[in-house]
Amino acid sequence: MKIKGLLSVIAFAGGMLASNIASADESLWLYTKGTDTRPQGTFELKLSNISRIGKSSGDYVFNDIRPEIEYGITDSLTITAELMIFDHNYSVNDPNLQPMHDTQGGAGGRFNKTQIGGYELGLKYNVLSPYKDYIGLSFGLGYDHRDKYRLDGADITQDSVTATVFLQKNFLDDTLIFAINPKIELERRTSPDVLEEEISLELSAGVAYRVAPKWFVGLEFRHQSDYLSPEEFGQTDPGLHRSSWDLDDFRIGSQHQNGNYFGPTVHYAEKDWWVTAGVLAQVWGGGSQHSYSEGGKNWDEHERLHAGVTVAYNF
User: Fold this and answer.
1) Could you tell me the pTM of the whole model?
2) What would the pLDDT profile of 86-100 be if each residue is shown by its tens digit?
C-alpha cells in the first residue's frame, strides 16, 4: 500500500509538472502562437529576432529584434510589453524597390542603422483549454506605436490596434499540436506628405510533433496582406479604394500587396527556459499595379526568407 501510495503521489506530481510546463505559453513556431496563457503571478522574459532577408535585387537584411516581458495577471489573462529594435542593412539596385531605394540615397547607396523602432502592449485571454476542452481558444488585443518604418528604417509616426484569435487542437496525448491565428491590424501611418490608413490581414498556422522528450519539430505557414490607398500630397489614386477604420466609416480598401511563407521550425524546452528556431521562405505573393511584384512574388514589402530564433526564461 505504501509503495502504491508513493507511486500515486509521484504520478500526480509528474502530471502537475507537465501541466505547468504546458501552460508556460511556449511558442512552437516563429509567428503562430498557441492558446496558453501564463500561470497567475509568473513572468516570462523573451528575446526574439526574425531576420528578413533578400529582395529581388541587391542585398537586404532587416533584423526585427523584440525583447519582451509577459506576466500572468490570472491563470487566464496575460499582459505583455515589448520593445522593437530595428536593424537594417541594405543596398538595393532596382529603383522600383521603394521606399528602400530612395532611403538608401539612390543608386549605389546603402542604409545601415540600428534604431529603436517603437513598442507594443498586449493582452491575451484564454477561454478554452486544449488540454481539457475539445479545442483551445484565446483572444488577443494589442496596441503598438512606431517611430521607424519596418521596411526601410525611415522616420514615421504609426499607431496600430490589433485583434487576434488563437485556436489550438492537440492530438495523441499532446504530442501532435495544430494552431491557427487569424489577425487584423488597423494602422494609421504618417510620413512627410503621406497618410496611410491601412487594414492588414494576417493568417498564420502551424503543426508540430514531439519527436523526443523536450523536442518538437514543425511546419508553419504565414499569410500577410495590406489593404489601402495611400494619400500623397492630399491626393489618392482614383483607381484604388481607400481603407478606413473610423467607427462611422469602416471599410476595407484595395489590396496593395500579399506575401505567403512556408517552412520548418524546431523547438526545445527545459523546465524554466525554451528556444524556438525556424526558416520560412516566400512561396508566392503579389499585389496591385502599385506594388513591386514579379515572378509570382512580392518584393517591395516582402522578402525571400524569414529566419528567426526566440529564447525565453520563465520565473
Assistant:
1) 0.89
2) 999 999 999 999 999
